[in-house]
């Protein structure tokens, strides 16, 4: 179940980078060859880019790849290090919980505003914020459980 | 009022909480205490990154990744070999020049150290260079990656401060070359002492010609990227995509060292890096928005202006502060946290924002080779199979060389500004 989710997110992340690259490339190509601007390319590239950040940050929680300072943790005895890590994870969960809650509120409060070129409602686009917060929470909790069971972080 | 947020932030860092979440947690507590609406967090996460110039960041990351597996890096190194391989400490010279060439196609120090180190550290060990020296040198030369354009930290600085990215890139060119020359001079000095030899003979003109011919297509990459941006033909974002496509064409069809099947993996890898780096920008912007609303940058500026340090003193204080911060936070995080705090201070002291951006970039990339948290050291020590502690003796003089370059570019304004001032 979780494995399938991992695969979907990884595939989505690679696809977003692909879409981003292709649309910026089309923009250059069309501007130089046909000498006309292609307005949707910038919008698609930007959206793919913002989405890739949220998805990438989510995958990074799963991979424990987010940048952190581990000199203190490495110097502490194992049990103390685990306690500090746990406290940090709980604070992080609190933050992500607020992003999830406020993200849903933000989506609900966004009116009928559309993106300028493609006319996609922002309300739908913003869903990525609470969605990625929820997935990060899920991965964080799975990480905490692994840590408590004594598997290597 | 909210100055306590900064020590709180550093406590969270030290507790090992990922930097991006430390910023989010501290900002959230600040919002709660000051009674400001929490929805700001969500808004900033989106708006901080929803801008076209930033799209250059994933493209430069992707271009660097493709070049490393697509055979471009090796040809750049071959070309450096023909040029400087015969000198004392020949392979060390090749490593530094290789890092400078690679810096001109990539915008990241880690990519630079990994790409060049992977090729040259084993070769250096085989030729009786001390592995600690090789690892230290490639890590130090890797810091040229984000200084010679293109540069990921400079894209972020430009977006945050509304400074021309093209001018910032131009400003990095001369400092990056000086960093390289400084490290080469030091490698020469060590080579004389320890008897690191170059190749038997100087490459003939014909060999140099062949080296360039083989590397010609690869060497065009920096020309396209840097030339395109500085001449204004491309925006930085567009030059990023041109670099990606050019690297793909070379790797897939010309050198044939890249396989279509590797592409999804490369895209994923770059996407993960993008998420890691730019989510930090999102949470950092909540944090610095809060500090700005509370007037902290203004108070800091007023307090330090009250000391009447003048331009020289202010830049000294800023540089020392950033060097200290850079030893234990990574470049990007330090950049996005401290730029909004320090730029007003520098501007008040009469420093041009472009000049300041280059100073910050050079300063914070030096932090990538200072323990305990020096990401480039992790990369090269892994390749050379030495510990960072063992590297220290060789590393410290190199850090000193780079610090001298930092002082030079800080106080000799024309070194940085000559080229950007020539742009329209």
Describe, in plain words, how this protein is organized in 3D.
The complex is a heterodimer of chains A (153) and B (424). Chain A is mainly alpha-helical. Chain A has helices at residues 2-34, 39-62, 71-75, 78-109, 122-125, 128-148. Helix content of chain A is 78%, strand content 0%. The model of chain A has no long low-confidence stretch (mean pLDDT 91). With 424 residues, chain B is an all-alpha fold. Chain B is built from 20 helices and no strands. In chain B, helix 5 (72-84) packs across helix 6, helix 15 (310-328) packs parallel to helix 17 (353-366) and helix 16 runs antiparallel to helix 17. The longest helix of chain B is centred in the middle third of the chain and has 31 residues, at 263-293. Chain B is globular and about 70 Å long. Chain B starts with a helix and ends with a helix. The model of chain B has no long low-confidence stretch (mean pLDDT 88). The chains are: A mainly alpha (153), B mainly alpha (424). Chains A and B meet through helix 1, helix 2, helix 3 and helix 4 of A and helix 1, helix 2, helix 3, helix 4 and helix 12 of B.
List the helices and strands and how they pair.
The complex is a heterodimer of chains A (153) and B (424).
Chain A: H1 2-34, H2 39-62, H3 71-75, H4 78-109, H5 122-125, H6 128-148
Helix pairs in contact in A: 1-2, 2-6, 4-6
Chain B: H1 5-14, H2 19-34, H3 39-47, H4 56-69, H5 72-84, H6 90-103, H7 109-126, H8 131-142, H9 152-161, H10 165-194, H11 205-230, H12 236-254, H13 263-293, H14 296-306, H15 310-328, H16 331-348, H17 353-366, H18 375-384, H19 388-411, H20 413-422
List keywords for this structure.
heterodimer; A: 153 residues; mainly alpha; 0% strand
Give the gist of this structure.
Chain A is mainly alpha-helical and 153 residues long.
Overall pLDDT level of chain A: 91
Query: Which structural class is indicated by helix and strand composition of chain B?
Result: mainly alpha
Order of helices and strands of chain B: HHHHHHHHHHHHHHHHHHHH
Uncertain residue ranges of chain A = none
Apparent shape of chain A: elongated
- Number-wise, the strands of chain B total 0
Largest pleated sheet of chain A: none
Q: Name the beta content range of chain B.
A: under 5%
Number-wise, the strands of chain A total: 0
Low-confidence stretches of chain B: none
The helix fraction of chain A, in percent, is: over 70%
Note the gap between the termini of chain A. 21 Å
Number of helices of chain B: 20
Strand content of chain A: under 5%
């Amino acid at each position: 179940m979780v494995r399938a989710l991992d695969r979907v997110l990884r595939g989505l992340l690679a696809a977003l980078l692909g879409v981003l690259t292709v649309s910026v490339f089309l923009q250059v190509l069309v501007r130089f060859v046909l000498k006309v601007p292609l307005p949707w390319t910038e919008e698609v590239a930007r959206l793919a880019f913002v989405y890739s950040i949220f998805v990438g940050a989510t995958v990074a929680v799963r991979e424990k790849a987010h940048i952190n300072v581990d000199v203190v943790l490495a110097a502490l005895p194992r049990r103390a290090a685990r306690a500090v890590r746990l406290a940090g994870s709980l604070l992080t969960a609190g933050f992500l919980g607020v992003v999830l809650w406020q993200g849903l509120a933000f989506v609900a409060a966004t009116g009928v505003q559309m993106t300028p070129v493609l006319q996609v409602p922002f309300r739908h686009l913003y869903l990525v914020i609470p969605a990625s917060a929820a997935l990060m929470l899920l991965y964080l909790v799975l990480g905490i459980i692994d840590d408590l069971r004594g598997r290597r972080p | 009022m909210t100055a306590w947020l900064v020590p709180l932030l550093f406590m969270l860092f030290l507790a090992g909480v990922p930097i991006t979440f430390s910023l989010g947690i501290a900002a959230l507590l600040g919002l709660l205490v000051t009674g400001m609406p929490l929805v700001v967090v969500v808004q900033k996460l989106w708006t901080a990154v929803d801008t076209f110039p930033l799209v250059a960041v994933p493209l430069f990351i992707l271009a660097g990744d493709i070049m490393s597996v697509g055979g471009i890096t090796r040809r750049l190194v071959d070309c450096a070999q023909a040029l400087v391989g015969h000198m004392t400490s020949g392979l060390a010279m090749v490593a530094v020049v290789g890092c400078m060439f690679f810096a001109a196609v990539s915008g990241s120090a880690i990519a630079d150290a990994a790409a060049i180190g992977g090729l040259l550290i084993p070769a250096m060990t085989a030729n009786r260079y001390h592995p600690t020296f090789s690892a230290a040198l490639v890590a130090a030369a890797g810091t040229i990656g984000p200084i010679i354009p293109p540069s990921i930290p400079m894209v972020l600085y430009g977006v945050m401060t509304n400074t021309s990215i093209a001018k910032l890139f131009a400003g990095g060119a001369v400092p990056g070359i000086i960093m390289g020359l400084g490290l080469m001079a030091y490698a020469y000095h060590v080579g004389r002492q320890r008897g690191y030899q170059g190749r038997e003979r100087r490459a003939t003109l014909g060999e140099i010609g062949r080296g360039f011919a083989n590397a010609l297509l690869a060497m065009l990459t920096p020309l396209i990227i840097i030339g395109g941006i500085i001449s204004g033909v491309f925006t930085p974002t567009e030059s990023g995509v041109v670099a990606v496509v050019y690297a793909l064409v070379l790797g897939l069809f010309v050198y044939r060292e890249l396989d279509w099947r590797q592409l999804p993996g490369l895209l994923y890898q770059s996407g993960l890096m993008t998420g890691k780096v730019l989510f930090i920008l999102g949470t950092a912007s909540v944090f610095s928005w809060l500090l700005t609303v509370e007037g902290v940058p203004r108070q800091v500026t007023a307090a330090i202006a009250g000391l009447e340090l003048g331009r020289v003193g202010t830049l000294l204080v800023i540089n020392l502060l950033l060097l200290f911060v850079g030893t234990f936070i990574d470049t990007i995080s330090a950049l996005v946290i401290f730029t909004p705090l320090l730029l007003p201070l520098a501007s008040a002291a009469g420093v041009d924002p472009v000049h300041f951006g280059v100073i910050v970039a050079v300063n914070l990339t030096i932090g990538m080779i200072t323990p305990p948290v020096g990401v480039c050291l992790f990369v090269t020590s892994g390749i050379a199979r030495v510990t960072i502690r063992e590297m220290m003796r060789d590393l410290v003089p190199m850090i000193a060389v780079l610090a001298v370059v930092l002082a030079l570019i800080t106080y000799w304004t024309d070194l940085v500004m000559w080229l950007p001032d020539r742009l329209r």
